[in-house]
Amino acid sequence: MTTVKEQQIIQAQFQERMNQDELLNCMRCGFCLPSCPTYIESGFKETHSPRGRIALMKAVVDGLIEPDEDVERSLELCLGCRACEPVCPSGVKYGHLLEEARDIIQQNKRHSLPVKLVRNAVFKGLFPHQERMRMATGLLGFYQRSGLQTVTRKTGFMKLLPENLATMEKVLPTVPSMKEMKNRPEYLPPHGTQTKRVAFFKGCLMDTMFLESNNSTMKLLQLAGCEIVIPKNQTCCGALHGHSGEKDSAKDLAKRNIQAFEELNVDYIITNAGGCGAFLVDYDHLLEKDADWNERAKAFTEKIKDISEVLYELDFHKKQKLELPYQVVTYQDSCHLRNVMKTASAPRVLLESIKGMEYREMKDADRCCGSAGIYNIVESEMSMQILDSKMEQTKATHATTIVTANPGCLLQMKLGIEREGLSDKVRAIHIVDLLIEASA
Amino acid sequence: MLTSELKQKLIQIVGVENYEDTKATRLVYSYDATPNFQAMPDAVISPRNTKEVSEIVKLCNQHKIPIVPRGSGSNLCGGTCPIEGGVVLLFRHMNRLLEIDEENLTVTVQPGVITLDMIKAVEEKGLFYPPDPSSMKISTIGGNINENSGGLRGLKYGVTRDYVIALEIVLANGDIIRTGGKLAKDVAGYDLTRLFVGSEGTLGVITEATLKLIPIPETKKVMLALYQDIEAAARTVSKIIANKIIPATMEFLDQPTLKVVEDFAQIGLPTNVKAVLLIEQDGAPEVVENDIQRIADICTAESAVSVQIAKSPEEAEALTTARRSALSALARLKPTTILEDATVPRSEIAKMVNGINKIAEKYQLDICTFGHAGDGNLHPTCPTDLRNLEEMERVEEAFAEIFALAIELGGTITGEHGVGVMKAPYLEWKLGREGIAAMQAIKSSLDPTNIMNPGKMFAKESRKRVVVAR
Asked: If contacts are CB pairs under 8 Å, which of residues 50-79 in chain B contact chain A?
């Protein structure tokens, strides 16, 4: 519950901070409606559409309504997938509006003590610190390896958790050992003739829980002739913070990353997680009002490229022999990779060039899978509804391999496979891991 | 505000989950795609079937509560803006395609079906529903019928009106009537089907429709012609028709539009030409081939500076980019985009476009004109900013003059967007006082309590007629 006093403060800040030109830019044509997963899944409710959310934000600014709990609910239920942006005739930057609105609400909301503690621990205590990320992942590793996992599952402890959290626990990857996580390379030479000099943005979760995918990425870059530098002082991209109304923390992280990469003299900065990449390319917007940093942020964002895009550009799929045993493969877009980084065809071209297997596009592959950062935990009902629709589409292709390009999507697809009881027939895999499999 | 007693009765009809009156919900149904119109309804109701609609209407009639039926709210005349409050009716549950009848070539739908979804479904059966308003990806059939929507293919195939053959309607007193049928011929009484098409929700609530289908054309081809003067482009349009060729679409873009599109899309359009025609023909392959060649010859004879026929679907796609990007390009220029649809007989297109350009100059505005040249339906579009009140005043004056010019040339104030609240003050210019009186007589006999979308179509006060300086 937000108190009347809090609402007044929020309203004042909306008037002060929301970009009014951008709000007015929405001409309410409604072209965004069919692209919005929550509009569709809510049974076509305008309150859960991009046009409706912008209208609500504008109405708060204009003083037509108060930022009451229904307004808040509408903004909370948004996945932030930004599928509405490419289809908008006016080019409204919806993602930026949403982020600002959420930030205002978060900052002025008095959270209950437990929520405050958890938010602090996660956003400030955990993600920005790679050694703690390793610790946390290490704990999970201990849990998986020590037999504790078996015991916990047998005792039925998991039944105490909400259904999707319990299933989530099952689909988490087997994590690497502490030693593996600690000894990470800082430089890797190209295989064969050098084509590009690139820096690798390893990400916090990718370099711990999804370490294998990071290794695959670097190996692919080497195969494509890239010399790779992996600066040690890089940190979490800040996407989770930015999307959850912790903008100041996100800005700090952005500055640290810009500093870590700016002197490296590289052609590109490579990411393999659509969610991180999309936030990284938006650093110049995040720091737009910071005169000292804006130019530096621009130089940084111009270099951001997804792994699929750079492999495609370097003709990796033509030069490298790629082959797999027969299987049907389908691809689930990462929303942020597609809608923000505009990388949609490169991963498909790469997949289609693998010999022996068959690529089948699923219907609505560009629609969000419902993972959306921590959305599948905090909005599990809507998330599972979206996931169920998604699984229908994947099943229609008869694919046994579902490829994704972002860790969140990967876990969500694994969750979907588990929920459908298909884990012995269908697998979900990051595109880099499949490409390594095909290169062997 | 609805009394709590009435609210309870409405909830009894549709169920608590289908009656909403939170501030947030009322706010998001306070607008449609028309700039500068916003008014909150008292409640938003989602009936599940015709019977529920009838019961809601009966109650509202008893209590004199306005009813505004709403599809996706994509109209451009303020048609679904609840300017007098009341109840907004949503068709989000009544959105099923009921039947495709391959023997009678018809499709029967509930009003909430998305136009493009229906088009795709009938095309899977090799059938064709030609009306293609630019908003078809989001608009509903119910909305299309109420606004009598047009589209790009109007010249050859007509508009929504030409495909609606039967309707189920809930009248203002709650009576449920059925008009027409799966019939090519039917003269049993007044043609109520046609009366309700384009009635903008002012006469009753359409709850089901049967639409006529035709076989899908086998193939299509696209070409682009560039002109140094507008008259030559306009002459080409008339010449093509005079040569007894009816293209599927004939789209026109003027120089200001071309410049904006090129700025935005960077597709190598020549911005030094005065007009572009984008022409598409569909049908049997030999016919299409022959027609396109003859059209190309006519373009050249009418001194087109360049004529380009697409050789592949990809090339066709590239040629149509300019037309498809027009709205996006214009919408990005300024926060507010005023998109009108003044329409003239196609023989008057050159005069109309030149007239619009002169009016734009007079009022110091940027007005870009593009549209459906084949049927004279133009879209003079003005990128502006609502907050600039002085400029908004000039915009209003300019458009009043554009409407007056259209009428003077034998045209109309609206070709496909509808009257709604936005153009109501101008309706008398087109119809005359007697015409308005005739329409009002129909309205008051079918809706004596004036609950069906009140405030639309008929203005409290008509605008003073502008005299166009010639």
From this structure: 72-74
Phi, psi at residue B181, to the nearest 5°? Answer: 175, -175
Cβ of A70 within 8 Å of Cβ of B73? The answer is no
Q: Inform me whether the pLDDT recorded for A113 exceeds 70.
A: no
Note the CATH number of domain B97-215: 3.30.465.10
Question: For the domain that residue A83 is a member of, what is the CATH number?
Answer: 1.10.1060.10
* Identity of the residue in B23, B137, B335 whose CB atom sits nearest the CB atom of A25: B335
Confidence at residue B470, expressed as pLDDT on a 0 to 100 scale: 46
**Domain end: A107, A126, A147, which one?**
A107
Give the residue, A152 or B114, on which the prediction is more confident: B114
A383: CATH: 3.40.50
* Residue A62 at interface with chain B, using a CB cutoff of 8 Å: no
Mean pLDDT of A102-126: 77
* CB proximity A66 to B under 8 Å: yes
Quote the pLDDT of residue A374.
Answer: 82
Fold of B4-90: 3.30.43
Say yes or no for a CB contact (<8 Å) between B23 and A70.
yes
A90 with B337: Cβ contact below 8 A: yes
**Could you tell me the residue range of the domain that residue A10 belongs to?**
4-107
Domain final position from A67, A90, A107:
A107
Q: Which conformational region is residue A174 in: left (phi greater than 0), alpha (psi within -120 to 50 degrees), or beta?
A: beta
Tell me what the mean pLDDT of segment B248-266 comes to: 88
CATH of domain B219-408: 3.40.462.40
A354 is a domain residue: yes
CA angle B402, B299, B352 (to 5 degrees): 10
Give me the residue from A25, A27, A66 closest to B33, CB to CB.
A27
> Length of chain A in residues, anyone?
440
Using an 8 Å Cβ cutoff, are B205 and B89 in contact? yes
Bridge partner list, A179: none
Provide the whole-model pTM: 0.92
CB pair distance less than 8 Å for B138 and A30:
yes
Residue A162 pLDDT level (bands cut at 50, 70, 90) = low
What value of ipTM does the predicted structure carry?
Answer: 0.94
In chain A, what residues touch B387 (CB-CB under 8 Å)? 24
pLDDT tens per residue, range B106-134:
999 999 999 999 999 999 999 999 999 98
A251/A293 Cα distance (integer angstroms): 10
Q: How far apart are CA B240 and CA A179, in angstroms?
A: 78
Count of the separate structural domains present in chain A: 2
- Subunit contact A31:B335, Cβ cutoff 8 A: no
Identify which of B185, B204, B86, B87 has the alpha carbon closest to the alpha carbon of residue B142: B204
The per-residue pLDDT for range A286-297, each reduced to its tens digit, is 999 999 999 999
Contact A59 B33 (CB under 8 A): no
In a domain, A60, yes or no: yes
- Distance, in Å, from the CA atom of B447 to the CA atom of B456, rounded to the nearest integer, reads 13
